[in-house]
Amino acid sequence: MGRAIAVHLAREGAQVHIGARRGAPAELTSALVEEFGDRIRFARLDVRQTESCRRFVAEVLDGRGRVDILVNAAGVYEEAGIAGHSDQVWDDAIDTNLTGTFKMIREVMPAMVRQKWGRIVNIASVAAHQGMALNGAYCASKAGLLGLGRCVALEGAAHGVTCNSVSPTWVETEMLKKFIDAEVAEGAPLAEVRARYEASNPQGKLVQPEEVAALVGYLVSDSARALTMADYQVNAGSLW
């Protein structure tokens, strides 16, 4: 989703800075640079680390002079039951999905307030609204984004800064492909596994990253000035 959002915004004329914990894969970097040149730049960013967030935003401000849009798309997912739940799984979900989002917002908020314009979008999940067994850490982290976003929206309202979240159901991303590949590796037919995921929502089709990106593109536009403190579900009619 992060890649699709970056491409969408770049095509709309934005100068895009992508941060990733492990850095950008070479094939992704070369493909995007070929299409957009220096309108898309890459840097290593670990949203769990305060100094990493501070350095990333400072470099953008030094190079561009302002930050207009922040899209928090970093996220991790790992299942675990509450009984015997490890601290590591819990901490990684909360630190990445929720605290990392808070840290990035904290870094860009002063600049957005000074310039009297800003758009913040957090990628949440339908898991922010619905529970599921073995997903306590993930659901808690995503639900926390909704509360955080409401507070940010209220603090930014008088300064032209909006904050919204987008909550997708299953999206056909690399993460989902890994889940499908894992089942196929255990002997399940690919067509059968894919069909089960597609049937998980009433529309019978997997949501595509570009569909999420299109919504984000509108939420960060001038036309969306009055849209703030809200969560928009891209759920294809599904509760999860």
From TrEMBL:
Q: Which PROSITE patterns match?
A: ADH_SHORT (PS00061)
- Which GO biological-process labels does this protein carry? monocarboxylic acid metabolic process
Q: Which InterPro entries match?
A: NAD(P)-bd_dom_sf, Sc_DH/Rdtase_CS, SDR, SDR_fam
Q: Which Gene3D superfamilies match?
A: NAD(P)-binding Rossmann-like Domain
Q: Name one Pfam family in it.
A: adh_short_C2
The family classification in the record reads: Belongs to the short-chain dehydrogenases/reductases (SDR) family.
Name-wise, this protein is NAD(P)-dependent dehydrogenase, short-chain alcohol dehydrogenase family
List the source organism. Paracoccus aminovorans
